[in-house]
Amino acid sequence: MKNEPNRTDATYSLRGQRSLLREVELSADLRKCEALIGYTERRIGELEVDKARQLKGSLSHDGMDRLVLSRTLEQLESENRIVVPYREQRDRIQAEIAKLAPSPAQAAERAHRQNYLAQLAADRLKKDELVEGALKGLRRLLQERAELTDKMLKAAEAADFTVDGDGLDARRFDELLAALPGELALSSEHWLEWFLGKGESLKTYVVRDKSLTVPETLGNPGVVHFGDRIELRQDQAPELLREDRPAGDPNQPWRHLPPSIMTVEDYEAMVRAAEKKGFSLQDFRSTEDLERDKKAKERFIKERFGEQL
């Protein structure tokens, strides 16, 4: 290993991906619940105003006013009943979200386990290097065998010895040699750098999606949002940078999903362009996506129907 990762100063994530995704799910439920509570409470407030007004009217007018008041009271009672389970649900969700936050003791235990996992991963890299050394030795032996086979063929020819097909057993190890992988340790080292969240093989990108889930590492749970920075290996980025991923909409076959991430340079350019136009970053991104979709539709129509137009 060229540069063995230093694990003593590693920064580990406080929360895991499963916990954060559960919180995202609960938070969405909480927003819906609070919206229902807000609507119902506004309705209760309106009914309370109606009730106060109708109470005054019922004291000085006929039975019709009392009937209207009675209906208002019934609606008020109904709305008060409706809001109770919403509030109970809100309390349950808030309690579950609170439980997801680790206590100091749990955080310390998680860090201890993460450090142990990092140690195991680093120890495994040493085994990967030994495996690669063994493979190099095996390739060398197979090459030496092939050289001996060449000498046997020449010797057989000189001795007027007839060799039919693979009579000298030359190809016995051909499949084995073809199956041997190339350099393994370097790929393993790059993987370890990514897993520990540091290393020269990583490149920083900025999240373009509203939210994105990527594989978890020891330093990052992998639950990221627009504007967050993430470190990725070279082999991870291309799929997330693609601009030609089909959106899967049969009614709009030209539509493609926008890139999930962007380079730091592109993000900084977006910031400048948004500021110049007086847009928020989110609005500027939406404008870009609409323009991209418009151009994709125009290309699709031209390619599909250009000759008929």
Topology:
Elements: H1 17-60, H2 63-100, H3 104-158, H4 174-179, H5 185-196, E1 203-207, E2 211-213, E3 223-225, E4 229-232, H6 237-241, E5 245-246, E6 256-257, E7 261-263, H7 264-277, H8 281-305
Antiparallel strand pairs: 1-4, 1-7, 2-3, 5-6
Helix pairs in contact: 1-2, 3-5, 7-8
Explain what this protein looks like in three dimensions.
With 309 residues, the protein is mainly alpha-helical. The chain folds into 3 domains: 17-101; 105-189; 200-305, no CATH class. The chain is built from 8 helices and 7 strands. It has helices spanning 17-60, 63-100, 104-158, 174-179, 185-196, 237-241, 264-277, 281-305; strands at residues 203-207, 211-213, 223-225, 229-232, 245-246, 256-257, 261-263. The protein has a 3-stranded antiparallel β-sheet. The protein has a two-stranded antiparallel ribbon with strand order 2-3. α1 runs antiparallel to α2. It is elongated. The protein starts with 16 loop residues before the first helix and ends with a helix. 10% of the residues are buried. The model is unreliable at 1-8 (pLDDT under 50).
